[in-house]
Automatic annotation (TrEMBL):
Limits of the Pyrroline-5-carboxylate reductase dimerisation domain: 158-253
Pfam family, one: P5CR_dimer
Protein name: Pyrroline-5-carboxylate reductase dimerization domain-containing protein
Organism: Effusibacillus consociatus
Homology family: Belongs to the pyrroline-5-carboxylate reductase family.
Residue ranges annotated for the Pyrroline-5-carboxylate reductase catalytic N-terminal domain, each copy included: 2-95
Length: 266
């Protein structure tokens, strides 16, 4: 299986590193980046990555072509690789701005759209997955089996991509901010060193994640197990509940209407 990546910026580079580290058998990783030094930096640390000299040569070489460029650059790349995108190949886009149907109108290959997460850097976390009309059940099984080496693929409806990506892709930043605020408050109120507060919170969230995923705990189970009647946790929750009321509703409303980088020039 040959995985090719056009674009090795933040997310593209992360995916390249993740697939190399995954140790998947019989998988070869190739990459092309318009700014050569960005790719060279990745290859220094991952010498098994094959460097390609153009997007078209990468498309000819690869079975799965991951399109990891800015929305405004997508059409330029598609025009360059179009003749190499045969029906047996897969085009995988990480751009939410381009719909599956729009991508299928540009190439004859099978089309998949994904929303990766920084958690793939740790070979973990959710990879949101959406399939175009040409992907068969066998194609889906093949793609998901490949991606399980670095993530937990979850198939969603394309119309749900914004709110789902807030949870899985933006979510790490949102929760990191909340946890950072929690640790900073402990420094101010308890006088402990910042490094110690950060370490305690990081290992707490690591253990909590294992309880959710490996042990199958639900949110309410954790709350009820820790929060005893009349106890300190219950007192703290009484402060949190009104303070958190509507906070994430406002966050999701803001991201829903945000355009910013999610535009394309066609």
């Amino acid at each position: 299986m040959r995985l090719g990546f056009v674009g090795t910026g933040s997310m593209g580079g992360m995916l390249v590193r993740a697939f190399v580290r995954s140790g998947l058998p019989d998988v070869e990783v190739a990459a092309y980046n318009r700014t050569a030094w960005k790719l060279d930096r990745i290859i220094v640390e991952n010498p098994n990555v094959r460097k390609m000299d153009s997007a078209s040569s990468l498309a000819k070489f690869s079975d799965f072509i991951f399109l990891c460029v800015k929305p405004a650059d997508v059409l330029t790349v598609l025009k360059e690789i179009r003749t190499s995108m045969s029906p047996d190949k897969f085009l995988i886009s990480i751009n939410s701005a381009w719909s599956l149907s729009e991508l299928e109108s540009e190439v004859s290959s099978k089309v998949i759209k994904i929303i990766p997460s920084i958690t793939q850097e740790a070979l973990s976390g959710v990879m949101l997955t959406m399939y175009g009309s040409r992907a068969t059940p066998t194609d889906r099984q093949l793609f998901e089996a490949t991606c399980r080496g670095i993530s937990f693929p979850v198939v969603i409806k394309e119309n749900d991509v914004r709110v789902c990506s807030d949870l899985t892709s933006c979510g790490p930043a949102f929760l990191a901010f909340v946890l950072q605020s929690f640790a900073s408050a402990a420094v101010r109120q308890g006088g402990i060193p910042p490094q110690q507060a950060d370490q305690l919170v990081k290992y707490m969230i690591y253990g909590l994640g294992k309880l959710f995923v490996k042990e199958g705990y639900e949110f309410e189970e954790i709350i009820s197990r820790v929060s005893l009647p009349g106890g300190v946790t219950e007192a703290g929750l009484k402060v949190l509940k009104p303070a958190m009321e509507g906070v994430f509703d406002d966050v999701l409303t803001t991201t829903k209407h945000f355009q910013g980088q999610h535009t394309k020039d066609k």
